C-alpha cells in the first residue's frame, strides 16, 4: 500500500536528509504475520527515516523526561477531583457491556488513573463461562469477573522482560549494541543481531515458529537458537516473539537466575504487585480468567496456566508470554513508569532510562513508533491517546494498557477475549472506544478551556 505522506516542515526535510545519509540500509516495515498466538497489529509498509543515537531525546520525547515529576502513589478518588467529566467515565460501562453483548469477550476489568487517582475500577461479565467443549456452563458453574480477577497478560509479558533487560543495562551487565551471540553461546556468531534489535523487533528474526511441536525442552530451545534471520538485522521491523524469548534467555544467563525469579525479585515484589506472577498456584484458579480449550495439546480448557502454546512448552516461563496479573497491579506498574521508574521507596529504573526506553528508536514518522520493548503511537489500541510519546502494549488473550504522559493518565482494559475461542474477532474497536471515553472526560472538562 502507498503511504500518505504528511506535510512536514523544510526543517524536518533537512533533518531527514541528513539522517538518511548517516544510516544505511533503510529500515522497512513488514506486515506482521498473524500466527495462532501472535497479536495482529495494523501495520503499514513505508519508507521511514531514522533517529540517530543522541544524548538528548528529540523535542517530542520531553514528555518522558520524568526527573522531578511527583512520585505519586495510587489513591482512589472521583473524576471531578482531577478535572474529568464523570459522565464520560460512566459511559465506559455501556461501551464495555456492548462488547460482551456482541460476544467479543465474556468479561472484562477496566481501570483508569489520572494524576495518580484511580477514577474507575470496574468488573464486567464472566471470568469463566464455557466448558472445555465450548458449551455454555450453567449459571451456578459460571464465575463472575471481579475487580481482582487475574488475567493471562500474554504479550504484555514482553514489557516486563524489556524492563528487566534495561535494569541489567543500568548495571553495566548488558550492552544494548552488543551482539546477542556474545551473551548466548548457543547463537551462531555469524548472526549479527544485537540486544537493541531484539528490543525494537528489528533483529531480522521471523515473527513466530511452532516450537511447541518439538518433543523436548532442549529441542525447543535449540530451534530458537538456530533460527536464521529472514531479513538483515536492522533493516526490517517484524514484531516477533522470538526476540523476547531470546532476550529472556540473555537475562537468565547474565543474572544467573530464572526469568520468573528475576522479574519477581527485581520488579514485581519491590513494587508490591502481589498478584503478578508466572505459573499461578492452583489455589488461585477461581480468581483467574479462563481462556480457551487446546485439545491439540491435550490441555482441555486452559484455565490457570499460560494460554500461549510456545510459552506453555517452555514450562510457562518465557520472555514473550507467561505473566499473569490484575488491573490494580498493572496500575502500580504503569504509575511507576509515569513516576520516572519509582513507586514509593522502590526504584525499578532510573528516570533517564525511562526516557530512553520510551523514546522512538527506529523511525521519525509519528504514526508508528517503537521504544525499547514498548509500543508507541499505536492508534489501533491507543485510540485518541495515540501520540509519538504514548506508550503501552497489548496481549493476544485480550489485554491492553496505555500510558499517556501528556495527560498523566493510565487506561487498563483486560479481557479474556479468547474464551472460549480466539475466532470471535478483533476487540480493537472496544479498546479504542474505552480510551475515547477517557480522553473526552479530560478534554471536554471546562478547565481545559480555562473555565471553572
TrEMBL record:
Signal peptide: none
Highest taxon of source: Bacteria
GO molecular function: hydrolase activity
Keywords: Hydrolase
Membrane-spanning intervals of the chain: none
Domain annotation Beta-lactamase-related: ranges: 93-433
UniProt keyword Metal-binding present: no
InterPro entries: Beta-lactam-related (IPR001466), Beta-lactam/transpept-like (IPR012338), Diverse_Enzym_Activities (IPR050789)
Pfam families: Beta-lactamase (PF00144)
Protein name: Serine hydrolase
